[in-house]
Structures are given as structure tokens and as C-alpha cells.
Amino acid sequence: MKKLILGLALTAGTFAFAQQTGNTSSNPVTFGVKGGMNVSSLSKDSGLDDQKSKIGFNAGVFANIPLAASFSVQPEVQYSQYGNKSDYTFAGTKYSASTKLDYITVPVMFQYNLIPDLYVEAGPEFGFMVSAKNKFKNESNGQSNTTDNYKDNLNTFNFGIGLGAGYYFTPNLGLTARYVAGLTDIAKNRPSGSDAVRNNLFQVGLAYKFK
């Protein structure tokens, strides 16, 4: 909770900076909403036979703060679904599993406009887990069940680096794409000698600026 408050305070401070910057810049600060599809995965876990990507969604708000003619910073607050799908064998029985990890994320992207409507971006993303659930299916009989929220057993803070691009085909509406590579282990207490498991995410969606 302290990390979540710190992340939101950082974003609020950036928004306040945006207001001040917008008063002195010829390019005004713009605010907007965005949302789209997530394609997420986890780095290789030796305990699983086969790992696959999982489809989810993201939605949030942003402020775009001009710093120079072609350079800006864009803080965001999103609700974003991470996780993966996997297959494993237990006691001779094959199971499929879907891991759903939901986060409130605070990306802070530094953007450079290659042309007025096309930009590339990079920056950190701070994630704060709000839910973690697994859905299991017994492949032999088709029975399935979903676990309770077990986020307290995991590392609820996630730090990643994002790389992306976007194109505004109207002054208000744009197409965005971003890849986020997680740098923190999702496990709270990783056994000594075992490999860390990290989040990986590809996002694509739409952004709308209010002008």
C-alpha cells in the first residue's frame, strides 16, 4: 500500500508539474484516456511443461507534457492485466492453467516525435498488484476451478522498462503499441538457486486526447 501511495503521489506531482509547464510552453499540456489489449507472459519457469501468452486488457488516463519542440514526458495510471497460460503434469495427470495478475501501473514514458504525429517512447513502469488468481483445468475430465486471491504470497511491486511507439491519425485519436520487460521477480520468497520469474507484456490500443 505504501508503494502504491508513493506511485500515485509521484504521478500527482508530475501532473502538477504539467500544469506549471503548460502555462509557459507554446505547446500546451494535454490530458487523455487510453485502453486496449494486453498480450502477457512470464519468463520461463522450469516447473512448467509449456508456457503460452495470455490475452488481457488495459485502461487508464494520461497527461502529455511538452518539454521541447519534439520531446515530451507522459505519465499514466492504468489498470493492466498480466499473467500467462501454461501446461504441467502432476501425479501423472495433465493440467492446463491460466495465471491472472492484475496491477495498477504507473508508466512514465519519455516521448520523441519523429514527425508531428509519430512518436517513439521509453521509460520506467511501476506496478502495484491488486489481484492474483489461478484457474486450473484437468485435461482428462474437463473439471476446472479458480483459486482465491493470493497476491499476499507474491511480490506485489513490479518494476519494468517500457519501449513503444504511437501514431495520431487525427489530432485527438491515436494508435499506440508498447512492450514492457519486467525486471523484478514475481515471487516474494524465491528458493535459493532457482531462477527468477518476471513479467513480460505487449500492449496495443487506442489513445484519445482531450483538446
What is the distance, rounded to the nearest whole angstrom, between the alpha carbons of the first and last residues? 34 Å
The largest sheet, given as strand count, sense and whether it forms a barrel, is: 8 strands, antiparallel, barrel
Oligomer: single chain
Annotation field: number of helices? 1
Q: Label the structural class.
A: mainly beta
Helix content: 10-25%
Shape: elongated
Low-confidence stretches: none
Order of strands in the sheet with most strands? 1-3-4-5-6-8-9-10
Beta-strand portion reads: over 45%
Average residue pLDDT? 87
Radius of gyration: 19 Å
Count of β-strands: 10
**Secondary-structure element order, as H and E?**
HEEEEEEEEEE
Keywords: Signal
Protein name: PorT family protein
Domain Outer membrane protein beta-barrel: 17-186
InterPro entries: Beta-barrel_OMP_2 (IPR025665), OMP/PagP_B-barrel (IPR011250)
Plain-language structure description:
An 8-stranded antiparallel barrel has the order 1-3-4-5-6-8-9-10. Strand 3 and strand 4 form a beta hairpin. It is built from 1 helix and 10 strands. With 211 residues, the chain is mostly beta strands.
